[in-house]
Amino acid sequence: MAENDAPRTMTVPLVAFTAGAVVALLAGVFAKAHDPSLSGTTDLGFATVIQMKVVVSVAVGVLAVLQVLGALWLYGRLGIAAPPWLGTAHRVSGVITLALALFVAYNCLWALGLESGSGVPARTVVHGVLGCVFIGAIVVKVVAVRAHHAPGWFLPVAGGLLFALLVALVLTSAGWYLDQHGWPSGNGY
Hints:
This protein is an all-alpha fold. 68% of the residues lie in helices and 0% in strands. The protein has one domain (11-32, 48-181).
């Protein structure tokens, strides 16, 4: 039996979702236990770390939409043939998207931690929890991309979950900031 003809198994998705849940939980425990600090973060020349995260998060959101469109095109869902270079471009832009998203996540976890309790806005709590789940979902997506014996639904579900979480994160952070403060102008928070 050829490798591509091997039977599909639920073991891969179950292990991936379990590993993702453990990573999400560990990120949450770290974020809650860690003493938030701006030391060790970067603002990339913006007036504040928050402004940097807003701009980079918007870029990540745009890249994520392009990732979905690229995947739909690659899998023939757009009704036009994908050019030969699209697979490579999709993989490279996916790595860049995840690297930028992890860069923002690191700055969030390190600078802000996981806030909760009375007096903390619900948006902040939801955003923090979604951020931890997002980090776990990255694990699931990476496994899905590499899993050759997983059911056919696994990769689109993992990708869709990651995209949905990313959209929710961008809306509860950059979307909120842009609504409250407008585009970062360099004049501080």
